[in-house]
Amino acid sequence: MSGADAFAAGARPGETAGHPLDNPVRSSLTGPHARFAECRGRLLRYPPEVSPWLALPDDPEAGDWTDAAALAGPGGTVTIAAFREPPPDDWKVVFHAEGVQLVDETVAAAPDPEAVRLGPADVPEMLELVERTRPGPFAKRTVELGTYLGIRRSGVLVAMAGERLNPPGWSEISGVCTDESVRGQGLAGRLVRAVAHDIRERGDIPFLHAAASNTNAVRLYTSLGFRLRRRTAFLSALAPRRPVPADRH
């Protein structure tokens, strides 16, 4: 089930009770990214080839975790971003990282003359750069989530940044990476400012997430004019290997 069908199944625009950034994956999938939404019960997720993120309700119940297990399959993995609700005891956490959520306060957003817009034809190059630099989850269709900009040197893609989550009124800058051969030249900062410019031009506010342990990235983003909004967490967990009810749609 996807897109508008998700709303008929119980997910509604603006349903997140607090700020859109409090549960940003859900805010995105019940808002501007509704076209990507796959639904089971109260759960929403992106297609795995777009993004690994699963969106829980603000107040997850036992049945929601049952639906998460059904989506994952027995022993499968779910990945949850910027959400602190722990899984039940019969789930096994295989990855956990403390994170920070930063929002635009004084970013000097501006186009970059060297940046080029990247699209589906550039995905093989983008995936190669991601493999070398490990900026975080990036799949074959992630480029569909928003604008991606890159910088090439001698015809080779060496740096990029783009957009991922899109809660109403906000757009997340993500996929920020530079090849080791060009680090220290300020390319990441230039691309972040360029993506931020595109976001502001359509009336949204830039924000981003980073691992709290990635102090170099956090230092860069704060130097560009982002401020800490809140601390959060990211996790991946293995579903229990128990049978799951066949239909809870």
Task: Describe the structure in your own words.
The protein has 249 residues and is α+β, with helices and mostly antiparallel strands. Helices cover 23% and strands 29% of the residues. The protein has 2 domains: 4-99 and 233-238, Gcn5-related N-acetyltransferase (GNAT) (Aminopeptidase, 3-Layer(aba) Sandwich); 103-230, Gcn5-related N-acetyltransferase (GNAT) (Aminopeptidase). It contains 6 helices and 11 strands. It has an 8-stranded mixed sheet, sandwiched between helices. Strands 1-2-3 form a 3-stranded antiparallel sheet. A hairpin with a 2-residue loop joins strand 1 and strand 2. The protein is globular, with a radius of gyration of 18 Å. Mean pLDDT is 90; it is low at 1-16.
Order of helices and strands: HHEEEHEEEHEEEHEHE
| Structural class by secondary-structure content | alpha+beta
The parts where pLDDT drops under 50 for at least 5 residues are 1-16
CATH T-level topology of the largest domain:
Aminopeptidase
State the domain count.
2
The biggest sheet amounts to: 8 strands, mixed
Distance between the termini: 9 Å
Strand order of the largest sheet: 4-11-5-10-9-8-7-6
CATH superfamily name of the largest domain? Gcn5-related N-acetyltransferase (GNAT)
Helix content: 10-25%
Return the average pLDDT rounded to an integer. Answer: 90
Q: Total helix count?
A: 6
Instruction: Tell me the CATH architecture of the largest domain.
Output: 3-Layer(aba) Sandwich
Count all strands and give the number: 11
Level-1 CATH class name of the largest domain = Alpha Beta
Shape: globular
- Radius of gyration, whole Å: 18 Å
SS strand fraction: 25-35%
